[in-house]
Amino acid sequence: MTGPSAAVAAVRLAVSRELADLPAGSLVLVACSGGADSLALAAGTAFVVGRAARHVDEAGGVPPLRAGAVVVDHGLQDGSATVATRAAEQCRRLGLDPVLVVPVTVDGPGGPEAAARDARYAALEEAARRTGAAAVLLGHTLDDQAETVLLALARGSGARSLAGMPTRRGPFRRPLLQLRRADTAAACTAQRLLPWQDPTNAAAPDGPRRSRVRHQLLPAAERVLGPGVVPALARTAEQLREQADAVDELADRLLAEAASRGVPTAGWDAETLAAAVPGVRRAALHAAALRTGCPPGSVTRLHVLALDALLVDWHGQGPVHLPGGMVGVRECGRLVLTESPSPSRQE
Q1: May I ask the CATH class of domain 6-234?
Q2: What does residue 313 show for φ and ψ, rounded to 5 degrees?
Q3: From the centroid of its chain, how far is CA 322?
Q4: In this predicted structure, what is the pLDDT of residue 309?
Q5: Are 30 and 91 within 8 A, CB to CB?
Q6: Who wins on pLDDT, 154 or 19?
Q7: For 38-65, what is each residue's pLDDT tens digit?
Q8: Which helix (H) or strand (E) holds 329?
Q9: Average pLDDT over residues 161-173
Q10: SS3 of 186, please?
Q11: Which residue ranges make up each domain of the chain?
C-alpha cells in the first residue's frame, strides 16, 4: 500500500507540528479562500485532526482537536459570493465543521489591498471569538514570505517589517511558511482538489503590487540570481525577526527606565533616552508613538528622527507633529507625547 505523495505528506506534517501544543478538545479554524494554498491547508488539517479523532474513538476518550473553516467573502469581484460558497462546500466535503462564510465590507484606509487585509483579519478574529477557536490557520507559504520582504524593501521599511510574517501571532498560525507554493499546488493535484484561480493573481502589468512581485519581479530575480532567491529572502526575514525581537525588548526596557527617572509625570526622561544606543532609542521612540495613540503603520522614519532630534539635537524647537493628531514635545527635561501641544517651557 503506497502512502501519500511527498507534497501531501509535507503539508500534513507541517500541520501536525503546528497543532501539537493545543490542548485536547480545542477547535482550530482554517482560513480558506479556495485557492491552492488554503485548500491544501484545509485538506491537511482535516486529515490530521480526523486521523487523531479516529484513534481516540478506537480507544475511547475526548478527541484531541476539532477543525472547522472560515471563508471570507471580500465582495470585491463579480461572483465572489459563488466563489466563497464553493470554497465552503469543499471544506465541508473534507470533513471540516463548522464552516463559516463571512462577508465583509472593504472600505478602510491604505488602499484596496491593505483595506481587504484589515477586513479579512478582523473577520477571522471575530470568527475565532464567536466559535471559541484556539487558533486560526493561514495558508501563507515561503513564496508569500519572500514577496512580503520585497514589498517591505520597496517601502524602505525597518527590520520589523522586513522580518516578514511570523509563524504565530495572536490566534493566527502559519503552518506552511516553510513550504513552497508549488508544494501546495501539487498537494491539491494529488488529492484531486480543484482550487480557485484568483484573477487578481494573474501576471497583469497593472495588477495589484503583490501580484506583480509574484509574476514579474521574483521570476526575474531567480533568472539573474539563481533559484535560491525565495529561500534566501525567507532566511533573511527569520534573522531580522530575531534581531527585531531583541531590539524591541531593549526598547521596552529603555522606556520603562526613562519613565521612572525624575519627577513622576507624563513622558520619559530625555537624558536617559539620549544616552541610549541610537538603534534602541529610535525603536523606543517608535514604540512610544504607537502606545500613545499614533495609528499602527503610520509612524515613519522621518517622524522618529524628528522625535530623536528633541533628545540629541535640542535647541528649543517646537512640537513634532505625528499621525493621529499627536505631537511630541520636550518640556522640563522630559519627552512628552500628547494629543495637543503643551505650553512651551523650553529648557
Answers
A1: alpha beta
A2: -135, 50
A3: 24
A4: 97
A5: yes
A6: 19
A7: 999 999 999 999 887 776 655 555 568 9
A8: strand 326-331
A9: 93
A10: helix
A11: 6-234, 261-338
Cell numbers found for residue 194: 480543484
**pLDDT interval class at 345 (50, 70, 90):** very low
- CA pair distance 148, 30, nearest whole angstrom: 21
Nearest alpha carbon to residue 180 among 298, 315, 306, 37: 37
| Distance set, CA 267 to CA 259, 287, 337 (Å) | 6, 13, 7
DSSP, collapsed to helix, strand or coil, labels residue 241 as helix
Q: According to the model, what pLDDT value does residue 347 have?
A: 46
Query: Residue written as cell 524602505?
Result: 156
The rounded Cα 109 to chain-centroid distance in angstroms is 17
Query: CA 257, CA 80: separation in Å to the nearest integer?
Result: 52
Cα 311 from Cα 281, distance rounded (Å) = 10
Nearest in space to 334 (alpha carbons), one of 311, 302, 316, 318 = 311
The pLDDT, as a whole number, for residue 340 is 64
Helix axis angle for 229-260 and 278-291, nearest 10°, is 80
How many CB atoms sit inside 10 A of residue 156's CB?
Answer: 9
Q: Are 302 and 291 in contact (CB under 8 A)?
A: no
Q: In angstroms, how far is CA 289 from the centroid of its own chain?
A: 21
Average pLDDT, the chain: 89
β-pair partners for 329: 336
Strand partners, 331: 334
Q: How far is CA 10 from CA 66, 202, 271, in A?
A: 21, 27, 53
Cell of 327: 505631537
Cis peptide before 98 (omega within 30 of 0): yes
pLDDT in the model for residue 207: 74
Number of alpha helices (DSSP H) and beta strands (DSSP E) in the chain:
13, 10
HSE-CB of 315 using CA atoms within 13 angstroms: 2
Does the CA dihedral 310-315-319-322 come out positive or negative?
negative
Cα distance between residue 259 and residue 252, in whole Å: 11
Number of other CB atoms surrounding residue 136 within 10 Å? 22
**Closest alpha carbon to 286 in 272, 269, 304:** 304
